[in-house]
Specification:
Layout lengths: L10 E8 L3 E8 L5 E7 L6 E3 L5 E3 L2 H11 L7 H17 L4 E3 H15 L1 H11 L5 H10 L1
Parallel strand pairs: 4-6
Antiparallel strand pairs: 1-2, 2-3, 4-5
Length: 145
């Protein structure tokens, strides 16, 4: 680590704080006496999604967020709640410890989180995810609830 002001390597950490997803360090250069802040963030390995047709794609949390927004439309669920659900889904997927994850597993995690949060949003998502063909499919799913 170099001082951004003078380029010196002679630094000390004045303060360290853990945040939710990073470590904040307040540093002081012992040569020029200026202070600056650095952040350390854990770099997670990328997840690869195996689609139904066996193709592979990079995991995109934004796709999950858009699906949740659509399912939760006109429901009393804030965007902060949706962001929390996204974080929970990603955490659960990463806990599996696999670099590649089946799209079916992603869908099941989304449905699990939605089921806990809002039953109507869950049914909306399930109707698209499970490709409900008629009213009978809705009835079967609602009986499971």
């Amino acid at each position: 680590m170099k001082c951004p002001f003078c380029g010196s390597l002679n630094l000390k950490v004045v303060d360290k704080r853990d945040t939710e997803d990073s470590i904040r360090r307040r540093r002081e250069c012992l040569d020029c006496n200026k202070r600056f802040t650095t952040y350390e963030k854990i770099e997670l390995s990328p997840l690869i999604v195996i689609k139904k047709d066996k193709t592979r794609r990079s995991f995109d949390l934004n796709k999950i967020k858009m699906g949740l927004i659509k399912a939760c439309e006109k429901r009393p669920i804030s965007i902060e709640d949706i962001d929390l659900m996204c974080s929970e889904i990603e955490r659960r997927l990463r806990e599996k410890g696999k670099p590649e994850i089946n799209s079916r597993e992603i869908g099941e995690e989304i449905m699990s989180v939605l089921k806990e949060k809002d039953k109507i949003s869950y049914i909306r998502f399930a109707s698209v995810y499970r490709e409900f063909a008629d009213l009978n499919d809705f009835k079967v799913e609602m009986k499971k609830l």
